[in-house]
Every structure is written in structure tokens, then in C-alpha cells.
Amino acid sequence: MDENLYKLNLDYLIVAQSLIFSGSEQKAMFCLGLTTEAVSLLRKMPLEQLKILARSDCLTFVPRFNPHKWSQFLNVQKTEDPDAVAARTVELLTLLSSHSPES
What we know:
This is Transcriptional regulator. The protein folds into two domains: 3-54, Flagellar transcriptional activator fold; 67-97. Helices cover 66% and strands 0% of the residues.
């Protein structure tokens, strides 16, 4: 078991569960790509089960970015107006959340 992979998985699961427990289920679904079924399962899982799941030999989540969509954001000029950067960030997050990882 790769310790870095374990930590990455566990951090993701803990953040997801924290959002759910704080009443921010919609934020967890939007930001982390959770389904309603995943939210329901994570709500019931004790920490020991999260640790077992995190020890799997693969990511417990699917990264939700597409390199083509990141290119516009990553090519921002450092002198650009912060409001324009913030608006483009929201636009990018909206695009990323509405597409599957393969698109």
C-alpha cells in the first residue's frame, strides 16, 4: 500500500464526511463530485471504515478536471484584475462540475 495514496484517499473521505456532517451536502456533491448515494453512505461510516476504504489500492474518487478546461485558467496574466480572475474561476468550476472526467 502506497502511504501517499492512503493519505490522499483518507483526506478526501474525511473532507467529504465533514462537509456532510456540517449540513453542506450540496457543497460536498458539487465540489467533490459525490452522488446522493455516496453522501448517504459516508454519513453512516465510522472513521475505522473510512480508513479501511482509504487503504484500497486505487483512488476512492475520480479527479474532476480536464486539462483542456484548465488551460484558460492556468494562462492567466499576473497583472489581471482579481475580479476577472475570480469570475473565470467560478466559470471554470461550473464547467468542471457539469462534465464527466472523460469529457
